[in-house]
Amino acid sequence: MSEGVVDRNRVVIFDTTLRDGEQSPGATLNIEEKIEIAKQLAKLGVDVIEAGFPISSQGDFEAVQRIAREVHGPVVAGLARAIVVDVDRAWEALKDAEKPRIHVFISTSDVHLKHLFKLTREEALQRAKEMVARAKSYCEDIEFSAQDATRSDLDYVCQMIEAVIEVGATTVNLPDTVGYTTPDEYERMISTVLSKVKNIDKAIISVHCHNDLGMAVANSLTALRAGARQVECTINGIGERAGNASLEEIVMALETRKDFFGLHTRANPAELLRTSRMVSSFTGIPVQPNKAIVGSNAFAHESGIHQDGMLKEKRTYEIMDAETVGAGETNLVLGKHSGRHAFRKHLSKLGYELGDEELNRIFFEFKQLCDKKKVVSDRDIETLIMDRVQSESDAAYRIEQVTVMTGNKMEPNATVKLIASDGSIVTEATVGDGPVDAVCKAISKLSGIQAELIEFNIAAITAGLDAQAEASIKLRFKGRVVTGRGSDTDIIVAAAKAYLHAVNKFIEMGTFEDETNADPYRRDEYGPLAGISRAFDR
Ligand code: KIV
Ligand code: ZN
After folding, report:
1. pTM of the full structure
2. Looking at the domain 10-283, which fold is it?
3. Whose C-alpha lies nearest to ligand 1, atom 2?
């Protein structure tokens, strides 16, 4: 069995935010952001971090490699299709990890085999066996996924599972790739695999559910009751299409309803909210207010009757304490007269241990914020820390200065000064339909990225007229979509930061001139679905 799981009631939490989650439209993360999220996932206590799909791009390869080298505690997994180049590339990225895992997948449904892979069932079975054996020659911990398992012939799935366990798979995953199954049906599938696959005691059964019909969490939990012991999920439920099963909902369902499930995880719920905010912030994908566990209304009581009940006895309307998931933040008792030492101690209480240099920078920014805001909250501090990760990555441009002139009787105009990565300063002045438009136009001109704006949101992070604003922006450029975020006490500056964050991501992705000569490892060419038959022909 994988990773010494001896406790039969322990559920292995496999987080795929950085792989399946990053497949959400526009959720591109840069390497520094991925590493920061991976470190936070380790703090949260997940067992496995799926760090990426190393063959899909040079960026993914480097991210997996750095997470494998720099993040300690959890198993670090890399995804590979059942082809030689993928498995070898995954191992190359993972080989320095404390606990590496190669995750090999192939489809088992006829619709995928016929249209995507152009393989017969027998050929797919043979290929899966060969590639799991190849992966096993590199490392002990091997996961195999039967993609689209829930729309496959169950006898064939059982045959495939038995064959890959025979050659060394230690975890076998039965994904509901298109979010099609139902709790009862999925439960039957797990029970059948448990009873029919002769060597199933040599592996852990894993489940991986997508949320197309809104049943991903329910399906995952039912499968755990039926005997699966690994669950694959993402923070905030982000992922392809309607997303994946949400990690925070699964962890809290198992925790809050221990009486019913009789299962436990190693996750520390107190880190859930912080992780959720970090992922939302870095991906630019906001969390809906009514989202279970981590939404801003998840613990809010509006109606008089509910409020009355809460005042009399919390348990009348609350099944979990907000503090359990890391909410209930305090307002900082520090202010502009506080010293560095007290600030460091407070950050440590919040779970952030910074090196001296980093601390000095955040401390300086904290002091600046104290001049602008009466009350600096923990949320404000977290925002400063998120911004640090963003600005410390090798961004092509950073904001030096934003000046706008606007009003109801004039054409808004903006002057933007950016610092390029080589230290040079570039300046542009433009007019626009509004101040945000003018600022974004100036950044477009300076960077040469004339992107189309698809979405723009701005919200206050905390209460009060002096609150910091967080802007998130979605841009499309030459067929690709990315999101960006930025925060500031000035909403125009927040918007400028968000726009530049997205623009920097486009620049980091590299050249767009000739899509046909694109990097052969690019995700959309080598993704889990696209171009798969061509890749198999090699
Ligand atoms: O949804 C899916 O089937 C996947 C596999 C690659 C595990 O993400
Ligand atoms: Zn998936």
Report:
1. 0.84
2. TIM Barrel (3.20.20)
3. 177
